[in-house]
Amino acid sequence: MKKKDKWIQNPKDILVENLDSVYAQAYQRIQTNIDLSSINRRMKVFAITSPSCGEGKTTTACNLANIWAYKGKKVLLIDLDLYRNNIHRVFGLENRIGIVDYCTNEATFKDILKHYHALDILTAGKKTIFPELIVGSNILAKLIKKCRSKYDYIILDTPPLLMVNDSLLLKNCIDGILCVVSIGMTKKKDLEKTIHILKEAEIKILGIVATHDVLKKSYDTYYAYSDKEKAMKYKKNEKVKL
Ligand SMILES: Nc1ncnc2c1ncn2[C@@H]1O[C@H](COP(=O)(O)OP(=O)(O)OP(=O)(O)O)[C@@H](O)[C@H]1O
Ligand SMILES: [Mg+2]
Q1: 7-25 in b/e burial notation, b at 16+ Cβ within 10 A?
Q2: Cβ 61 vs Cβ 155: under 8 Å
Q3: From ligand 1's centre to the CA of 48, what distance in Å?
């Protein structure tokens, strides 16, 4: 099955259904790590990128946003991958208008704001042949600035960094970037290049999120990936404090 077909048939597949599951807890832990890195400056607006295509950026963005909103945080998720926007499909939302329409003065914030339970979402909206002009626009920067006071977190899904530099254009709007890598797919040299580019651009790297290998394997293997002791406890059915 082609990837595109999969999205059309089962786009919601990527959402973690059980919001108290071990998978949800893993996303929750990312929030803890981000908060811990926020001692001097609160990290609330961040982009999600990865070196190449299909490494799990949208999956990570959607699940982080959905789970954090479920846990009581006020979260805004914005689809800024204006090449392969998929967030509307994941949440089963219509995408007639979205952030592109707002940035071209064809819609208001109220017009484009959509919801999935407690989560606020701005889908991409109409197709544009100039994604970088939208992503780098003052109107988008002003919107994000205005939303800072309304939300605990603003999560921006962006395209692959080694393909297009849209996430770099967001530098002045964001507090940092989460970089997604796919175990088995992402090449080491591409990750190194990505980190180099982000450092050169002086964008704070909030962390690296590993996908694919992690969720494909069993829970004990999953914990082994991050914490061997917790893996053993989980295996023995002991309570694990994340
Ligand atoms: N942690 C994960 N474990 C297993 N499969 C995953 C994981 N994250 C993503 N996937 C799967 O990998 C595929 C690509 O994921 P996704 O669309 O999120 O990547 P992407 O980086 O946003 O891709 P693109 O560059 O095309 O926007 C999807 O089929 C998704 O279901
Ligand atoms: Mg994507």
Answers
A1: beeebeebbbeebeeebbe
A2: yes
A3: 12
- Structural domains of the chain, count: 1
Burial level of 80, CB count in 10 A (0-12/13-18/19+)?
Answer: buried
Pocket of ligand 1 (CB under 6 A): 6, 14, 50, 53-59, 81, 84, 86, 160, 211-212, 214-216
- pTM equals 0.86
150: left (phi over 0), alpha (psi -120 to 50) or beta: alpha
Residues 152, 44 contacting (CB under 8 angstroms) = yes
Would you state the structure tokens that stand for residue 148, as one six-digit string? 């800072």
Pick the closest to residue 173 from 156, 196, 195 (CA basis): 156
218 CB-contact burial (10 Å; exposed 0-12 / middle 13-18 / buried 19+):
exposed
Nearest ligand (C-alpha, residue 182): 1
CA of 80 relative to ligand 2 center, distance in Å: 9
Which mutation among 3, 14, 162 tests ligand 1's pocket best, with the greatest number of atoms within 8 A of CB?
14
Give the CATH number for residue 226.
3.40.50.300
Q: What is the pLDDT of residues 172-181, one digit of tens each?
A: 999 999 999 9
State the ligand closest to the CA atom of 86: 2
Distance 233 CA to ligand 2 centre (A): 34
Parent domain of 115: 17-235
Q: Is residue 201 domain-resident?
A: yes
Query: Does the pLDDT at position 72 exceed 90?
Result: yes
